[in-house]
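Figure 2 data, in text form.
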Amino acid sequence: MRTILGLDFDGVIIDPIQPKIAIARKIGFHIEPHQTPAVILKKLMPESEYEKFKYFLYDDPETALNCSLMPGFTGFIKKIRENDVPYFIISRRKENFDIPVMLLQKHSLWPDYFNEKNLFFVAEKEDKNKKAVELGVTHYIDDDPKVLDKLTDVKHRILFDPLGVFNTSEYKVISSWDDLLTRRDFLLGF
């Protein structure tokens, strides 16, 4: 079976930890790195404050473009491409698709590694599954176990957990891109 890789964007390719801490502080919350995953933040903030937080993180260019790449991602994507593994970003964004493209440009990944042919945005978690099926994705990497729960038609679901905050035995877990490269059994045909 040939590997076709699906990737989430925020928290998998883009490292939002420090911007999340800064934005939370800006709106009156003190959080630690281990509290930055969305499933944790939603429990720490009232919904109205979380919506404000998301605006700064995803839609305000001044703060949204401050994110760096996850350590090791550039080396990983180069290896994937060298091995002719098809790959796609399937990310949940309801609006403002320009910010992710600008981030990919900023980090020299657009248009050489990602472009209109392999970057897709969907509205809901369930829509990631539909798009993955359409693209033939065999392996999907996300930083949210609740999203992986919705990818019922993807055979290999991998949880990207660089902070070690999720206790799960249901999914294969990686802590970094280097971790994935050393555990090649996760990506068949690679």
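Caption note: DSSP finds nine helices and eight strands in the chain.
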